[in-house]
Structure formats: C-alpha cells, structure tokens
Design a protein that fits this description.
By secondary structure, the chain is an alpha/beta fold. The chain has one domain: NAD(P)-binding Rossmann-like Domain (Rossmann fold), CATH 3.40.50. The chain contains 4 helices and 4 strands. Helix 1 packs parallel to helix 2 and helix 3 runs parallel beside helix 4. The two termini are 18 Å apart. The structure holds NADP nicotinamide-adenine-dinucleotide phosphate. NADP nicotinamide-adenine-dinucleotide phosphate (NAP) binds next to helix 1.
C-alpha cells in the first residue's frame, strides 16, 4: 500500500537517503528540512531533481524541528495536500563527539532539545491526524 511519509532532517545523510529509497519504493515522501530558502536551498533542489529524474513522488517541505510553529505548519500542509499522513520518521538530530568535560551544560541542552524534545514537537503536530486515521480505518474494518 502506498503511504504518505514525512521524514525530518532529510537535507542530508540517512534522512536524504531514506527519503529517496522510500520514494523509489512507490510512496509519497516529504523530505522535510529547515532553511529551505537559505542554507538548504541546494539540498531542496537536489531532492526535486531526483524526483523528476526518477519519476517518483519525492517532495520537499520546510520543517525546523526546533520550532513548534514550523512543525505544525508542515504537518498541516501535508494533510491539506494529501488528505492524510501515514508515517512519521524522526531523523533530524545531532551527534556530538569529544571529551565529556568539553561540553557546557547549555550545549548539551541544545543537543537534547534537537534529539529528544523535537520529536515531541513533531508528535504534537502529527499524532492527532494519525489518531483520526486509526478511527477511520477501524470504522471501515467494522463495515467489511
Ligand atoms: N551516522 C551515524 O552513525 C548515526 C548513529 C546513530 C544515530 N544517528 C542519528 O541519525 C540521524 C541522522 O544522522 P546522519 O548521520 O544522517 O547525520 P546528518 O547528515 O548530520 O543528518 C542530520 C540531519 O538533521 C538535520 N537537523 C538538525 N537540526 C535540525 C532542525 N532543527 N530541524 C530540521 N532538521 C535538523 C540536519 O539538517 P541541517 O543540514 O539543516 O543541519 C541534517 O539533515 C541523526 O539524528 C543522528 O544523530 C546517526
């Protein structure tokens, strides 16, 4: 079954690769990323070119996981366009390396915010829609 999927942090690395692989597999994939009109404009274009070259449904959308407003807006747009959202992949994050004492508590707080709290921002935006869909599917199941 074809799903509508959003992946966070899909400007590079695993997120960009997963977005392409899932689009090739036939799904509608939103490669979400921050700063789509700035730093990540080239990454956005690359994803769009990939979609055209491979004739797949890979789309891009602005989503900064550090902002509740941005997460809300991205999920709202996806649902308005496709009528539903089936899968959320939390990928955005930072890995930090180094001696533990090299990091200030403020720096660790920033890492925690992106790696942990950001998933809650996206969940708060997406889960009400996913719950609605569970109700639809349960109702459909009861009819058949
Ligand atoms: N590579 C590994 O060995 C490994 C191991 C364990 C876990 N992980 C985790 O797997 C995930 C992907 O890793 P990766 O290796 O593919 O690293 P990566 O290429 O650095 O990808 C991380 C992505 O997160 C995005 N991101 C960061 N802050 C964001 C924000 N506020 N809003 C939206 N996107 C944001 C980055 O976007 P920008 O380009 O805009 O910064 C980037 O596209 C990360 O969460 C990482 O911690 C990786």
């Amino acid at each position: 079954m074809k799903s509508i999927i959003v992946i966070t942090g899909a400007s590079s690395g695993f997120g960009a690769l997963a977005a392409r692989a899932l689009a090739i597999a036939g799904h509608t994939v939103y490669a979400s990323m921050r700063e789509t009109t700035g730093r990540n404009a080239a990454q956005m274009e690359a994803a769009q070119e990939f979609a055209v070259e491979n004739k797949v449904d890979l789309r891009t959308i602005e989503l900064d996981v550090a902002s509740q407003e941005s997460a809300d807006q991205a999920i709202k747009t996806i649902v308005e366009k496709g009528g539903r959202l089936d899968v959320v992949i939390h990928n955005a994050g930072h890995m930090v390396f180094g001696a533990a004492e090299a990091f200030t508590p403020e720096q660790l707080l920033q890492v925690y915010d992106i790696n942990v709290l950001s998933t809650q921002r996206v969940n708060r935006a997406a889960l009400p829609q996913l719950r609605k869909q569970i109700k639809w599917f349960s109702a459909m199941g009861r009819k058949h």
